[in-house]
Amino acid sequence: MGTVVLVHGIGNLVRGVPPEQAAELKATAAAERLRKGLSAAGLSHVPLPGLVMAYYAHQLTDDYRPEQQSADAAALEDLTRAQEDEAWEWLETAGAVRPREGQAAMLSPLRWAVNRIVEQRAGDARPAARKRLAELLSRLVVATLQDTDAYTSRPGRRKAVRATVARAVRDHGARVVVAHSLGSVVAYETLHAHPDLEIDLLLTLGSPLGLPAVLRKLDPEPTAGRGARPPGVRHWVNIADVGDLVAVPHELGGAFPVDVHATTDIGLFDPHTLGGYLAAGLTAAALAPHFGD
Q1: What CATH class has 3-64+152-290?
Q2: CB neighbours of 85 closer than 8 A, spacing ≥ 6?
Q3: Quick check: 253 and 280 in contact, CB under 8 A?
Q4: Is the pLDDT of residue 209 over 60?
Q5: What pTM did the predictor assign?
Q6: How would residue 71 be classed by pLDDT, with cut points 50, 70 and 90?
Q7: What confidence tens digit (pLDDT) does each residue in 122-147 have?
Q8: Contact criterion met (CB below 8 Å) for 98 and 113
Q9: Cα–Cα distance between 199 and 287 in angstroms, integer?
């Protein structure tokens, strides 16, 4: 039975424990969700492979200390000017429009735009549910922009994160990499930076690779707006939830040589988490053929 390396995405910093323990906790939680996915796909008889989490969240911050227990969550209003510009570019890609004068009332323009996206996607939901979804999507925007900046803004940090992922793949002889959210950017760059890594399947979930701001920062830089396939990847499958705000534009904007694009529905209030994707039958079905020796 082979090993599958998971590459997590945004918002995965675990405080209070060392990185090795955080990786084990994340892998254990992922195994439980994938077991549900196999059941949903009618594949309960398929044994789980070994799951290893390439944990790098602690490398995105300069002040990480294992003994820290919590950190204050940032809000849309805390974004830098550059991040705010990227947020507008992103939200407009997802179908939002900028408010006309006086339209946003007491809300910030970005928060108003997020609320409009919620109305488009969950207009028939109760007000409390819409408010909850708006807060969830707002946190998603902030975490994605800030974690992406934390990864791409420091060459040394970027190299260290990619080394963490490459080591997990190499040390375990993994032939399957499952990369979620920002992790799909990390995995894509890692597999380019370490062409000796040969992968039977790269499975990207909820990937922001097609976002204009991400494309501009990729290493290697896309040519004529198109990213190259990592040399050691035999097969690439990309799965996106129909309501995942991070996974826009659809099918990574047609900018990457993906073999199979597919969409799923992991729930209105769980449109982006790794656990939600792993618990989906579509994800489990894509992985199961690669669980053998």
Answers
A1: alpha beta
A2: none
A3: no
A4: yes
A5: 0.92
A6: very low
A7: 767 788 888 888 888 888 899 999 99
A8: yes
A9: 13
Q: Radius of gyration over alpha carbons of the chain, in Å?
A: 19
At residue 280, what is the residue type?
A
Query: Tokens standing for 272?
Result: 């982006």
> Would you mind telling me the total number of residues written for the chain in this entry?
293
Mean pLDDT of all residues in the chain?
90
Contact 79, 60 (CB under 8 A): no
Q: Which of 232, 168, 230 is nearest to 200 (CA)?
A: 232
Q: Which of 85, 88, 95, 33 is nearest to 242 (CA)?
A: 95
Domain boundaries, the chain: 3-64+152-290, 76-147
Q: Look at residue 211 and give its three-state secondary structure.
A: coil
Place of tokens 């705000």: 245
The per-residue pLDDT for range 181-206, each reduced to its tens digit, is 999 999 999 999 999 999 999 999 99
Residue reference for tokens 């198109």: 226
CA distances from 95 to 88, 119, 267 (A): 10, 12, 20
Beta bridge partners of 4: 51, 176
For 230, phi then psi, to 5°, come to -55, 135
Choice among 87-96, 142-151, 230-239, 278-287 with the minimum mean pLDDT: 87-96
Tokens 């979804």 correspond to: 133
Measured between alpha carbons, how far is 265 from 270 in angstroms, rounded to an integer? 9
